[in-house]
Amino acid sequence: MEDKKKKVTKKNVNIDEVTKKINKKTSEIKKNIKEDIKEEKKVETKNNFGVFEYTILIVIVALIFSLAGYFIGKRANFGTEDYSTATKEIQKFIEEYNYVLENYYGDIDKDELITNAIKGMLSSLDEYSGFVGEESNNFSITLKGEYEGLGIGVVNNSNNDIIISTIYPNSPASKAGLKENDKVIKFNDTDVSGMSTSDLVDKISNTENIKLTVLRDEEELTFELKKDKIVIESVHSEMKENNIGYIKVDIFAENTYSQFKEALESLENNGMKSLIIDLRGNSGGHLTAVEDMLSLFMNNKHIIYQTEDKNGVEKVYSSGNKDKEYKIVILQDLGSASASEIMASSLKEQLGAYIIGKTSYGKGTVQSLQNVTGIGQYKVTTKKWLTSNGEWINEKGIVPDLEVSLTSDYIQNPTLENDAQYQAAIKYLNENA
Questions:
Q1: d(Cα 304, Cα 294) in Å, to the nearest integer?
Q2: Does one domain contain both 344 and 389?
Q3: 327, 358, 363, 383: which is the annotated catalytic residue?
Q4: 270 and 399: one domain?
Q5: Structural domain containing residue 304
Q6: Domain tally for the chain?
Q7: Is 291 a catalytic residue?
Q8: Which residue of 37, 202, 321, 339 has the fewest CB atoms within a 10 Å radius of its CB?
Q9: Is residue 349 among the annotated active site residues?
Q10: What gap in Å lies between CA 340 and CA 326, rounded to an integer?
Q11: How confident is the model over 344-383, as pLDDT tens digits?
Q12: Is 258 tagged catalytic?
């Protein structure tokens, strides 16, 4: 079979000579920029580079030349790739950016133009790379595991009314007497008709003492509230029949490990003989949380998962000191993704856990968050994650050992008694204890 890799052309590089050229070029560019800034102060024009854009260009040029010097040094040893194209690509962008500023017929918000340019760049990557929007910001609050607020979740219904969908236990909202399905009609005596939930959340975030007026069974009720620290409970547990422990994990937040550890130790201290870990609907979260949770189950000889990036593959090991010997069943569905898949695959491959439910989502990548001053945050995919045995489950998911679908009875009345997947887990553990 023909190898279609690019041929490598080696050539001798005089690093000192190239460095001198780079320094000379840098000096010329800085000099030109200073002269242009002086000219800009003399002549006002809205369609030309400003100090903001020149500052960005100085940073870009300095970064490019620093990288060029680094890679030229690398090339002296490895002689592989020509990085001069990077400057041509950036120069092309600058030329087109300048053309738009000079020729667009209307006013231009330069900050917005740059923001959208970055968005366009990210849109050419995978589906998980991009700017962090409002929904992602709410998800970030959930991942934090706690926040300052009233302890309510709100949604807009089909009429665009704001409805309280969730009341957190022991929160200011719970103590004041607010209830799920209350319709919020006023915020500090201001009508909220047509307001989005995000606007209401912003108002709550920026106000200390809050008065909410709600409509409940056609009766108007007003509640005065003060924000407090809200701890989001992401772990729920209880002991079932025959000493079968049950732990439901909603998400892998910053405080999930401590909640999970407490729940697991409580079940073990009360005579647990086997365990069901319910990861259904869990879309993932922090890798450190799942690493710490898995370390509760296995010693440090076990691989939890692996990562792969441009520098190669790295194995992540458990930090635990003992293997659990009881039977474990994992419940999963299509909504189980990322960190949930790490937990399920690791317990299956390393400790022989049994998986029941549906094939998981199949998200096998890891994202990093970047902050851009004055613009916002974006995330970019930086690596793959592989199961402990080295399998990449991206877009494939984890196939359960026993596939079980939920029945219409459960959809109409979602209880564990009507939960075919949960009942299958109980049956398995009773038969294989």
A1: 7
A2: yes
A3: 363
A4: yes
A5: 235-431
A6: 3
A7: no
A8: 321
A9: yes
A10: 20
A11: 999 999 999 999 999 999 999 987 777 777 666 778 888 9
A12: no
